[in-house]
Amino acid sequence: MKLKDIYKPINPKINKMEDELNNLVNDAGIPSVSKLYGYFFQNSGKHLRPALVFLSAGAVKKQQTNEENHLIQLGFALELLHSASLVHDDIIDEDMTRRGQKTLNNMFGNKIAVLAGDTLFSHAYSITSNLFPREYSQVVADLSFKMCVAEIEQAKGNINREKYFNIIEGKTALFTSVCCKLGAILAGGTKSEIKSLESFGLNFGMAYQIKDDFVDGDPNALKYVTMDDARAFSSKAKKAIAGLDDSVYKQNLCELMDYMMNV
Length: 263
What we know:
- The protein is mostly helical.
- The chain has helices spanning 3-6, 11-26, 31-41, 48-60, 68-93, 104-108, 110-131, 134-156, 161-186, 191-216, 219-224, 227-240, 248-262; strands spanning 97-98, 101-102.
- It contains 13 helices and 2 strands, in the order αααααββαααααααα.
- Strands 1-2 form a two-stranded antiparallel ribbon.
- The chain starts with a helix and ends with a helix.
- 42% of the residues are buried.
């Protein structure tokens, strides 16, 4: 199955979220900032994290029509948070290209790229603090802290198998877990449904990051884990939501897991 087929039930939401990105580029208020945003978002990737938000919300089947705008804004905020982390990752790793184009740090220099990433973080926090209950802002702040701690641990080196798992959990898996959790909460999921989707997201992120590291030839992944580890986390992800009511959204979460393991 192709990604466009997996996203089909949520395409209207993805399109509205992309409209929000375009509005941010066009309405930044400062030409220099608009230029940075326009450059970065001209190739904005798979929108994986908003997709997890929207599919998770659909999987609990309690979303009301008047909640749709808040769901779009939640996906938008988490996409901005992810984008900010990518900008800073490129600086830390001294990467010169991303998604087939020069990185912000390569194009505009490290100082400007750091500040651009900071402005994206600010937009994300502004959305979650202004539109949602305090719980959402606390979850996002905690996520950001743990992502930074994982980056610090990775930069320190001395990696082993346990530390590798801890790092990718902090860098990637907690984020995908938060996307599923908040999507389910916003859609009115039960405690059991929210927990199931949160577990799906965590295992999804672990599988995804291990597989991605193998594709990139990451020396730590090649030394301490195998693709069998990735497949084990993928299996755990799908089992985590086995108890949810059958729906196209539940099915497509599983299809998304399979897709990410095979691209």
